[in-house]
Amino acid sequence: MFDPADIGRISPDEQAEALRTLIATFATSVVRPGAPKPRNAVSAGILDILDEVPADRAEGVAQLFAMMALRLRRRARPRRTTFRLALETALLARSYVGDGAPADESAYLASDRPGLDTIDRACTDLLDRMASVPEAEQRAWLGAQVVASALIDAEHRNRLDDADRDLGDMAVAEFLLRSTAQYLAATAVRTPQPEGGS
Known about the structure:
This protein has 198 residues and is mostly helical. It contains 8 helices and no strands. The protein is globular and about 60 Å long.
């Protein structure tokens, strides 16, 4: 688990270098009116800098970059920001589990995605079963159903034995995150009904 105190292990010089790199990345991504299109911002020089981060400080540097990216993403719509974070983290978890890289993000999202009608039927089933759960316990009960689904999926892939505990945990996380990204992708094109509409 990430300890926020680890951020303090980055020296001021390292923080400044990381920030300069991040600023350069985004600055060279901007196409100004009338100006020539810049070259790819993720240049070999930037990758060289990232490759030279010591292993014992990689997590702290990664957290710094993630926080900077989050500050920029907050300017986007919450749905879009959450979608990108869920999708990117799901793909990262998938790589830790050892699954092959998908052809592209669309293929990953489309793989084993339940249709909205299937989700509607599952909602009906859960609501029927939840009727006997005390109201104060319903949110925890629903959370248990969600985690249980991810655990069952991971168990089917034989990832939850003691030797592969980390792989099992990542398989559970990937299931939950991919499901979230799939839902956001599936509902992003739905147009809200006008007030008073059917």
